What we know:
Distance between the termini: 39 Å
Number of domains: 3
Mean pLDDT: 91
Amino acid sequence: MPIRLYDTRRRDKVDFTTLEPGKVSMYVCGVTVYDHCHLGHARCYLAFDLIHRWLEASGFDVMYVQNFTDIDDKIIARALETNGDWRRLVEENIEGYYEDMDALNILRADAYPRCTEYVDEMIRIIDDLIAKDHAYQAEDGVYFHVDSAPEKYGQLTGQSIEAVRSGAGGRVGESGKKDHKDFALWKAAKPGEPTWSSPWGEGRPGWHIECTAMSLDYFNKEFDIHGGGHDLRFPHHEAEIFQGECHTGHSPVVHHWMHNGFVNIDGEKMSKSLGNFWTIKDILSHVDAMVLRFALINAHYRSPIDMNEALLRDAERNYNKLLETYVEALKLVDSNEPVTLPTADFNAQDELSRTLAMLERLAEGFAQAMDDDFNSREAIAKVLAMVREIGKLKHVNLDQADRHAFAVFVVELLEETAGRALGLLPSREDALAEPEDNPRKVQIAEHVEALLVQRDDARAAKDWGRADAIRDELNQLGVIVTDTADGPVWDLA
Length: 493
């Protein structure tokens, strides 16, 4: 079965084809490094990490490029706010980016070019666009003239240029634009800002031109995949279509456009003004990184996801089941012993053969899900079904050889699916190490211990109503209490 993906430009799911057999060229828009990365960044780069992983698992040699925007209005403004050097701000936030992505087990891209490394190349492209009458110089910089290539308008959003023209009021604001649709390629210098020399005077590049310069430098006139968040379709990615295709004279430059969905918090768009803005560092102080990864990929990458406490608790419970199953099997593996398993057969008399048949079917379903537009939600459902099937054999009386052989099979199956493809498993060494305290368990421990003391007091006083209320509160926290001869013991559900 070929890999199929949803192409934003074609507005349809299509067979994935590459310019060069067996090789994939992929460019994903990176972060503007003016602040710490937030949950939306985690969603985006996890989505393309899954795509990266599955393409490689499918046998492709992937060249993955992701840029850093290291000069921008926001960077300049933040540096002025903090009385800091913009270069130091950039370096600190790039270092923070790598820390966040490594924590989430996101594979490194092959290259991370920076905007400031490509100013000369951007100037060359802008000069060419002016020569071809696709751009013009104004007092405040250089602008791309959208009406010079009207057929390219709205290719990702479906907007009609005629509708935009009819709705335009003719105002272009405080700029040298000829038309409100035009966008900046070069910004003239302003006092106190970093600048570079150009044929149009001192200034700095506009936002959109940087990705065109960097992607074309790595991939020449065309490449396979360009990705980013849903919000980048317009204006950023449509601007790239204008620039790249008008500069190279080649169409399409990008053969597959891919965009991931938004993250909402408790049903509302994440925003600082609403007080629901979560940086990755904020959330990882309360939630295990692999639990967050599980929660964010347990949705199709194109779908919006609503992040809330219930979602995180559900992710934590399911991830812990997966990890427990993997560790239990890993403890039974002895690489020095040969292994032989019975034939997988749904109609066999022994349960081991039937279980192997079911696990092989689930593995096939996993691959089909990932081939179908990288459907990680369905793929995770197959992994959790594997965990349930594996668990059924705990109560079956297998001899030592079969139990060992099955453990080897389970480890390899989970490492291939949940591990290499989904990035959800630690290394074998880390998995077998003594587990650290769960961050959420640490966070609520004092409160839970206090509730358990109150529960004992209520029981001693035969205040059953109060005891039931405490039990309900513990349930809402996702806590399971087991009463033992030595007193109550609790854990997360």
